[in-house]
Amino acid sequence: MDMKKYQGVFPALYACYDDNGEISPERVKAFTQYLIDKGVNGLYVGGSSGECIYQSVEDRKKTLEACMEVAKGKIVIIAHVACNNTKDSQELAAHAEGLGVDAIASIPPIYFRLPEHAIAKYWNDISAAAPNTDFIIYNIPQLAGVSLTISLLREMKKNPRVIGVKNSSMPVQDIQMFKDEDVIVFNGPDEQFISGLAMGACGGIGGTYAAMPELFIKMRALFLEGKMEEARVIQNDVCRIIYKMCSTKGNMYAVIKEIIRIQGGPDIGSVRAPLAELIEEDLPICKEAAAMITDAIKKYC
What is the pTM of this model? Predict the structure, then answer.
């Protein structure tokens, strides 16, 4: 099994809508090519940044199909397939395997607090629907309401398709604990990218990467060269950019989509309700964040 392909910078693909707020395959394709041209190692499709919780099964299929039409064979694709029921999750898993993705991923079921054996069954049932595809556990306790434990990870490791964890919990030490269980771990919190690599993450999957992939790619290159102080300086600037993007009334993904337009990237629409769209007073902040990104790229890349 080739684990090296999971190393590097994996932006989370944002939902791409047309002017009526529906999935736009053409905009998905354009955005996918835009990120490939930036030099990313892979994409994480259908996760939190893809607004999956507010999309139908058909919406998510359309997005992955369009993405794979452009990306298959060029970069690594991890498809997040979790829905809040097993049946729909299995349908998305089988669909993803049929398209030839490299791996599928899943959060635990949300809302009801399920015991670990029920969570394990949910994940294993999803994996069984894509029996020839790698499976990655998505640990995001601050949103899912449940944390991945070592006992649950050990139970999941009995499934030979389970290869790793996308870890979005805030304690960086969680990466080390999961790594000790002999799985690959992706760093989740973008503000801790360098820290995650230092703790043994194979790379990162992040919700702000697509706004500034050059900076994350450069940070990782400096880290691999042992230039930690230079990498730390970029990380600190990236954090400041993220703080700026989070200072609007509109949802952060609406902000990032506007930033990408300001940068000359593709128009991929807004966000889906109930996520908050941008308001007029947000636009100067978007321009300021875009300028911060441009300045940092010129300075470091």
Answer: 0.97
